[in-house]
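Anyone up for a design puzzle?
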């Protein structure tokens, strides 16, 4: 029997009931389950340490150990324990269940179990179920050319990367939405439980519909320590811990101890109790149409960190302490005595009882794993592209804004988009595979039309003056947490559905790291033929930097774009449509796309509309183009190129062009609008990028380019640094802002029409006295503007009432 710690911890089934010493497991089944757990633990240690001699057929030598030993042991035996017990209830109840490893650094556990159930060898046939395969399984772990030490996209059955600390429960709920037969077993590390996203995720049970959604079974793995510190939840009293979870709306069941026989029986009984509770909740809700919010079960598993591992190493306690977190035993040339200690540790699992002469798991143990798609490593929900169905898409043309001439009408872009999204939601109600996510901003971002066909999903109490709340709905925006919205949507997409996340632009920064991990997941899965493509992660960033004049400096941050463009070119796309028709065209494309992260920045305030729908479709298809109707260089080389990207920069560039053409009619101006930001990058660096020839034909090789950009100017410089034309002058957001008028926001950041005109004059000294007088006129206008807003609290009438004119 594996080594146990000396200090015995009493076992309990919950805070009040005594342990049933017998439990549901027969002696024979108990023996097999314990043996399967030993096998998983053995494989886990082998993955961390061994380069050769996988079954210890000969005495262990230092040459059998990897030169660099990397991994995390502390969480691993506990996760192995959970996995084998989940296997049992899957078989007993014929459950559709998969596993999310919140402590994702416990990679050896999940890889080992997926190997034992047979899924790993099916997907990676070179890692066979025999001694040769075991050697490859061990060697590949955290080894050059192999797999990472964390749970990763390479791990079958996983939708959760080991680097995503804090998002496991959010992913679990996202997976459960609209999957009524699915149970997501989500293991939460007690260190992970201290993160903001996870601490908030406990409240997600207020948004889970027991009639139409599946279930989430959280299992808090309370092993007491992080890397070098105790965990908070492990150091509070049992009653306080229980009250915390009851206060969050859960019914907690406790499994505590270190004696394997008792713990197996207790875990088996507790899991059965949890599964029966889930089935009873769902049966009652579905048969009686009972929408009362239930108290879902959860499990708290309290076991020693590094359970069954080395107890004492070099005179220091390891098992049950923080020292077990990573590699508990250094085995190298400086610690030769540790080779024998590692051998004793591995032999304590008695591999000769677990694997036959060929290195295959004993048949009686292999029978404990579920079969086919019921194996957690083979569950189709964990490879969501298998289940993905195309959205039924409405014709976006029917929502077109009628534009008789450029700038003749004004419109609110996201208000128009809201009606399109309403139709998407309506068309896909029966498929139940499309949702809108956002942190209480769907109405604020003017997408309220969706509430004409659906509600916000909300399973907590309702009051008479609430709006659009119901136990089931296609919108999840009733929790003010960007972390949860991102995590839910990722889980929803990863399990084969579609959606979008709408947010204020400034506050999408809260999920920077979550986006990064999802982008990394998409990048790696592109390289795995067995992983199917999933629907794109679509962001709609509204209430953007140039529309936050009333909220002020804190709400002004376009930096998400900077963050996104750092990721792999095969994955990221950034769109800044200049008007509503372009926004419709772009979003139709994004919702149809696969395996991208699409960032769309759009405004909600009334702004001029520039293009007819037909022109918008052409423009968005090209992603960048000369606006001939605004340009006057058709018969000659331009004197200057005026470029714009984003709705507000487009407005100001065109206003500046209008002034220039009125006062300098001989000046040849070319106007370029950019919808697809990545067009600016070289074709050698991004698949959407322009070739050098195409870029030069648009922007010329030597003319000055005055570029109005939505975000930080450095973004455009980074994307174009390889281009021939170095005469690029970008005007964008430069961290200036306060409570002021909309136009003054642009003035403070030198993105207004008056500064832009001055910029052109400064670049073209040959304009002579005409240029000097125009520059002085613009300076006078800036002073007039400042005096006017200080007195009247609104922008000049000529700004508020401005209409496009080319002054021909």
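Challenge accepted. My sequence:
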């Amino acid at each position: 029997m594996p080594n146990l710690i000396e200090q015995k911890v009493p076992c309990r089934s919950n805070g009040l009931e005594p342990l049933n010493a017998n439990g549901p497991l027969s002696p024979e089944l108990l023996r097999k389950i314990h043996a399967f757990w030993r096998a998983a633990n053995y494989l886990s240690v082998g993955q961390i340490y061994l380069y050769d001699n996988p079954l210890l057929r000969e005495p262990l030598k230092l040459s059998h150990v990897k030169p660099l030993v990397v991994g995390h042991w502390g969480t691993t035996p506990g996760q192995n324990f959970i996995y084998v017990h989940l296997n049992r209830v899957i078989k007993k109840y014929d459950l559709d269940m998969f596993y999310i490893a919140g402590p994702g650094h416990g990679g050896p556990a999940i890889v080992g179990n997926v190997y034992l159930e047979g899924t790993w060898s099916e997907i990676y046939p070179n890692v066979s179920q025999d001694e040769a395969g075991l050697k490859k399984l061990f060697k590949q772990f955290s080894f050059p050319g192999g797999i990472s030490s964390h749970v990763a996209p390479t791990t079958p059955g996983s939708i959760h990367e080991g680097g995503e600390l804090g998002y496991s429960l959010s992913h679990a709920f996202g997976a459960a939405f609209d999957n009524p037969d699915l149970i997501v077993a989500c293991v939460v590390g007690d260190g992970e439980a201290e993160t903001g996203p996870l601490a908030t995720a406990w409240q997600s049970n207020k948004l889970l519909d027991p009639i139409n959604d599946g279930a989430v079974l959280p299992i808090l793995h309370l092993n007491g320590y992080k890397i070098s510190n105790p965990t908070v939840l492990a150091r509070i009293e049992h009653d306080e811990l229980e009250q915390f979870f009851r206060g969050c709306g859960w019914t907690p069941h406790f499994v505590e101890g270190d004696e394997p026989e008792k713990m197996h029986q207790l875990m088996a009984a507790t899991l059965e109790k949890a599964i029966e509770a889930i089935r009873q909740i769902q049966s009652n809700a579905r048969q009686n149409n009972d929408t009362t919010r239930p108290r879902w079960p959860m499990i708290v598993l309290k076991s020693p960190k590094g359970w069954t591992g080395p107890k004492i190493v070099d005179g220091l306690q390891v098992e049950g302490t923080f020292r077990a977190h990573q590699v508990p035993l250094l085995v190298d040339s400086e610690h030769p005595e540790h080779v024998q200690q590692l051998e004793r540790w591995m032999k304590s699992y008695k591999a000769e009882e677990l694997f036959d002469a060929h290195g295959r798991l004993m048949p009686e143990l292999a029978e404990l794993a579920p079969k086919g798609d019921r194996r957690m490593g083979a569950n189709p929900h964990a490879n969501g592209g298998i289940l993905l169905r195309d959205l039924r898409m409405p014709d976006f043309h029917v929502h077109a804004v009628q534009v008789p001439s450029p700038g003749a009408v004004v419109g609110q872009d996201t208000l128009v988009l809201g009606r399109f999204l309403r139709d998407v939601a309506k068309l896909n109600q029966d498929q139940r595979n499309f949702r809108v996510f956002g942190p209480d901003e769907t109405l604020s971002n003017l997408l309220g039309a969706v509430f004409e066909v659906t509600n916000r999903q909300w399973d907590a109490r309702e009051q008479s003056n609430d709006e659009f709340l119901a136990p089931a709905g296609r919108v999840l925006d009733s929790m003010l947490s960007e972390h949860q919205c991102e995590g839910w949507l990722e889980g929803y997409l990863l399990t084969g559905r579609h959606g979008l996340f709408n947010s204020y632009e400034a506050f999408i920064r809260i999920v920077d790291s979550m986006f990064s991990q999802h982008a990394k997941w998409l990048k790696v899965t592109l390289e795995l033929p067995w992983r199917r493509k999933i629907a794109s992660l679509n962001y709609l960033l509204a209430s953007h930097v140039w529309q936050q004049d009333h909220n002020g400096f804190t709400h002004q941050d376009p930096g998400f774009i900077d963050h996104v463009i750092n990721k792999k070119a095969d994955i990221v796309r950034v769109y800044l449509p200049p008007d509503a028709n372009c926004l419709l065209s772009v979003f139709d494309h994004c919702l149809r796309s696969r395996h991208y992260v699409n960032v769309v920045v759009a405004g909600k305030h009334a702004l001029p509309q520039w293009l007819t729908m037909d022109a918008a479709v052409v423009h968005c298809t090209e992603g960048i183009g000369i606006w001939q109707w605004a340009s006057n260089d058709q018969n000659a080389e331009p004197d200057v190129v005026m470029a714009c990207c984003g709705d507000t920069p487009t407005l100001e560039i065109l206003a500046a062009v209008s002034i220039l053409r009125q006062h300098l009619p001989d000046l040849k101006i070319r106007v370029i609008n950019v919808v697809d930001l990545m067009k600016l990058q070289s074709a050698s660096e991004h698949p959407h990028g322009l070739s050098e020839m195409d870029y030069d034909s648009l922007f010329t090789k030597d003319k000055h380019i005055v570029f109005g950009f939505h975000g930080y100017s450095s973004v455009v410089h980074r994307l174009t640094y390889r281009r021939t034309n170095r005469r690029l002058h970008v005007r964008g957001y430069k961290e200036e802002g306060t409570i002021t008028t909309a136009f003054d926001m642009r003035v403070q950041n030198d993105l207004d029409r008056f500064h832009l005109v001055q910029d052109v004059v400064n670049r073209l000294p040959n304009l002579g006295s005409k240029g000097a007088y125009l520059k002085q006129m613009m300076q006078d206008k800036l002073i007039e503007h400042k005096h006017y807003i200080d007195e009247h609290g609104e922008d000049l009438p000529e700004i508020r009432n401005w209409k496009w004119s080319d002054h021909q």
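A detail worth pointing out: The chain has 24 helices and 22 strands.
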